[in-house]
Amino acid sequence: MVKIVIIGGGAAGMACAVRLAGAGREIVLLERGDRLGRKLSATGNGQGNVTNMNMDVSHYFTDDREKAARILARCGAHDVICFLEEMGGLFLPDARGRVYPAGRQASAVTDLLRRELSLRAVDVRTGTRVEKLAWDGAFRLSFAGGTLRADAVVLAAGGAAARQFGTDGTAYALAGAFGHTLAPISPVLVQLRCDPAAVRGLKGIRVDAGLRVLRGGRQIYACRGDVLFTESGVSGDAVFRASSHARAGDVLELDFLPDTGPEALAHAVREGAEGLWCVVSNGLGRHIFRFAQGNRARVLSLLKAFPLNVTGTLGFDYAQATRGGIPLAEVTDSLMSKYRSGLYFAGEILNVDGECGGYNLHWAFASALAVAEALK
After folding, report:
1. Side by side, which strands form the sheet with 91-93?
2. pTM score of the predicted model
3. Comparing C-alpha atoms, which of 155, 167, 161 is closest to residue 331?
4. Quick one: angle between helices 65-74 and 359-375, nearest 10?
């Protein structure tokens, strides 16, 4: 019987294994896929946004904000950076506080963790999907080809987002066997679907825009950033951030010229479809002109407040994170189950998700290190 089994070889699972191995603990790390860290290697648009210098619980969504705040207070951005830099590399913030490896390569972060696991001779078993987790005086893990018994188990198997990386939500059932419930799950950090008439013909156009999320005419969120029109709606950095707040029935309002006031805009825009030359891209200008039915006053209004009715998202297959999961209310501050001593949770499987900007990966590391501290 081994001491500790970690289920899930993503960021949380690998980080927990590295820290525990460094403390001399006996560990087996199980990963259902053929290699570790597949989702980590794609994070931050492939650049590896590992944390954010503007770290506090206000950037997170969860059922127990006070507990999340206590965990985050024990592991801030500097702690995550130090943890990673102890293995090598250099991690630097950008102007918005997003922290990346200096080489801007997410797969290199995965390489650091894999190398550390190898150096510490951690027993890593890929291609091993745990089908059943039970208790008979010790934890019993069943999978194709065998079983394992353990004193403690860390469930770090992810949520339901980005299923191409193996996180399909089936791991929730392992916790359910011990009486844990599931806060309703939904995809976040994802492209938004919109009324097709409003985006038809705009596919591929990218703008730096101000964005507001309106619900019942009231603003509930605002940001500025990259907006990319797609065949079914909108994507881009600003949209991913807004997707944590928006839902079907809301309105996205885009300001295509956030640095330009009404007077300067009125001076620049002329009558007719040609009146938007050198104001916005020609393709966007023609679309706005048609949408406004040629009315110049309406054109001016749409340039500062173009409405998109949200009809939904592209779903879990395209999402970067999962909202919902095992409630924080069902675990202790060390993230151990309140229903079964020795069962711990780390990462996205818990009902904690963050805004776009490194917050979800930070939670993966912070929660993993909290579990490791409890098990050392």
Report:
1. 51-52, 98-101, 91-93
2. 0.94
3. 155
4. 80
